[in-house]
């Protein structure tokens, strides 16, 4: 299968309001369709526990003050208050866990969308966005990034499995960064015909380096660590790791692209 770029969509991208776009939120919801339902349940139970805590607090205070209107002995009122408080704390924890998970999912999806807007120059000289390749479903970009020596070594290793990788739609994207993790002079783009399905060069490498820095930071890697990222044909990150890309494993695991 040959990598193809989709035709650009008419018009510019719509302005995004808020921290996350509607598209990002919808994708996060699709990946975890029951999260909203769970949040509703935890919120409802938390509201019930809040009301119960308020009532139990009044009953406990009344029992402690030996008020004539006290309906429960102090021990029973205190036990009821403890149960309600424990329930409230549990619901708050569960709700916040869902919120944290949702935000982490949207941050990850947001980074993937930023990646889709980055540009590549194919060996033919044509410049395309990563998303344009993803929309066709015919390419699986594999980003190999690091300092020059690391990237050159990874590229050289990839040549050994090139035929199998090309059959799986793999498009190698070498990204060279310097000792500060900033964009360096990139490798040669390769032969216009022989490498059309095999190599692509990052355009505006500084933007690529900034995206990579955020990706590294999210997993606690140093700015200069050699890393690789394998993308699915639909643009999601399939796998990633530190060091050289496992070309032989990718060639064995990836299914062919029709």
TrEMBL record:
<protein>
    <submittedName>
        <fullName>Uncharacterized protein</fullName>
    </submittedName>
</protein>
<feature type="compositionally biased region" description="Low complexity">
    <location>
        <begin position="1"/>
        <end position="15"/>
    </location>
</feature>
<keyword id="KW-0812">Transmembrane</keyword>
<keyword id="KW-1133">Transmembrane helix</keyword>
<feature type="transmembrane region" description="Helical">
    <location>
        <begin position="40"/>
        <end position="65"/>
    </location>
</feature>
<feature type="transmembrane region" description="Helical">
    <location>
        <begin position="77"/>
        <end position="95"/>
    </location>
</feature>
<keyword id="KW-0472">Membrane</keyword>
<feature type="region of interest" description="Disordered">
    <location>
        <begin position="1"/>
        <end position="22"/>
    </location>
</feature>
<dbReference type="Pfam" id="PF11998">
    <property type="entry name" value="DUF3493"/>
</dbReference>
<dbReference type="InterPro" id="IPR021883">
    <property type="entry name" value="LPA1-like"/>
</dbReference>
